[in-house]
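RESIDUES AND SHAPES:
===
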Amino acid sequence: MLLKAALALVLPFVILTLFARVTYNHYVAAVLTIALLAAAYSKGYMDSWLLIALDAVSVIAGFLYAAKMAKRTRNEKTN
């Protein structure tokens, strides 16, 4: 259970960050990540509300980081 909790905190953050780098849009990356998590939930891979909450926290943190990364990239292009 501890390994699942650690992965729930790390993997959605990493996946969202990678999707944001590939798509150049943090909104699209968030939708893709949430869709991927929803597919995992519907298949029954998540067995606890705690894991779902940790996934949500990780997605929010990843979204905020990707937004900051996009803003920094925009500022570098204008300078």
Q: What stands out?
A: The mean pLDDT is 92.
